[in-house]
From TrEMBL:
Full protein name: Transglutaminase-like domain-containing protein
TM stretches of this protein: none
Residue ranges occupied by any Transglutaminase-like domain in the UniProt entry: 188-258
Phylogenetic classification of the source organism: Bacteria, Bacillati, Actinomycetota, Actinomycetes, Mycobacteriales
Amino acid sequence: MTFPDNAVATRSRRYRVFHRTCYTYDDVVSSSYGRCYLTPRELPHQHVRSAEVRIEPEPDDWSTGVDVYGNSDSYFHVRTHHDKLLVTATSIVDVDPPDQGLLLSPAALGPWEQARPAALGTEGAGAMEFVLDLCPPEITPAVTAYAAQVFTPGRPLIEAVTDLTSRIFHDFTYKSGSTAISTKVDTVLARRMGVCQDFARVAIACLRSVGLAARYESGYLATDPPPGREKIFGADASHAWAAVWLPGNHWIAFDPTNDKLVDERHVTVAWGRDYDDVPPLRGVIYTESKKSRIDVSVDVSPIGTDDAPAT
């Protein structure tokens, strides 16, 4: 991975994001509670022109809010008897290229040790939550040893982060279904296999093992079809990556799954300390059903500025 390639600004992009989740059950569900993180964040480099989440059957109770990390979340309660629950989120989002000034700032180019929040007193206090390990712990001897190959004394922070990104990309194999949400980072390290959520969590554990603040970010990545083939609607997927904190309360996000810094092809939805803080959809149902099925369809389509409604 070469840092200059990631620092070159291109142009802003506009996307129509469609995320459909369908649960089906083999018996009637009498009550369904849910919480979802499906609305993209409004950020300095990302403008949400429109966003909507629909639930079928129509919820009896519905509310939206903002959580402790500033993410938009929605709660719903369906009391109508049903054997299928459909959650559809649609949004139109403008995303700008990454800030070259931040990537070339003294904080990014300085020694990584200077970005440890614990050494910065009041300035780093707000980031200390993102330095702490999870419970049960994710920082194991294997994680510490892997991180030690990257975070050598005095190395520039941005150089170490891009190296970590590339190492995970080359050392691990992407294989859908090889892990579950409950799979520990140590297991992913041992198997050298996983999906984007796993690779983000490996990176986060490595950063925290050396005292740096790191957060888990969820969203979408705009992808292009293979040469000569048309894009298949709904064939995309939700995505995840990591971010590291810099003095000045800035964050640099990076994508180990694709060996790159996060750029204008990434649509950010939510962030927290770990996946458990920001799952796309989570809930509880009351039913005698013994079996259920989940089908997810995601599409991230570039659109022209004339294709979107004015705001």
